Amino acid sequence: MNTAAARTPRPLPSRHGWAGLALALALPLMVALWGAAALWLDAPAAWMAVIVAADASVLLSLLRVPAGRGRAAWALAFLALATAASLWLMAAGVVGPAFGLLPWESALRLGPVLFGVIAEPWMGLGNLAWLAAAVALTLWCNR
What we know:
Blueprint: H1 3-7, H2 15-41, H3 48-62, H4 69-95, H5 103-109, H6 112-119, H7 125-141
């Protein structure tokens, strides 16, 4: 028996694989929090993008994903997906009651054109500034 082969350590699972799994599990929770804040305030609550960016950055650092472009890409992807899903769910919550649908039922039937019509007023300078701040925070925390 070859003892050198027996002592060779098995490779550890990729940190990026665990990061993807953790972020995929955290995404619905952050979308739900963002949606709850938007419903409570009756506004898009774009400041939640900064909280989402901080959450992604802290989660990736807790998983010990090395800082750099890869970690920044994971955090930016999480931010983009959370922002898109939250805005989509908010738009579905606006149009759904007119058809007797709950927001998650309406979200499955909402098209991109109607989404654009509903979400266009939300893209004011203040909300875009919050989104830009979230991107800047993500890049700074994961550099």
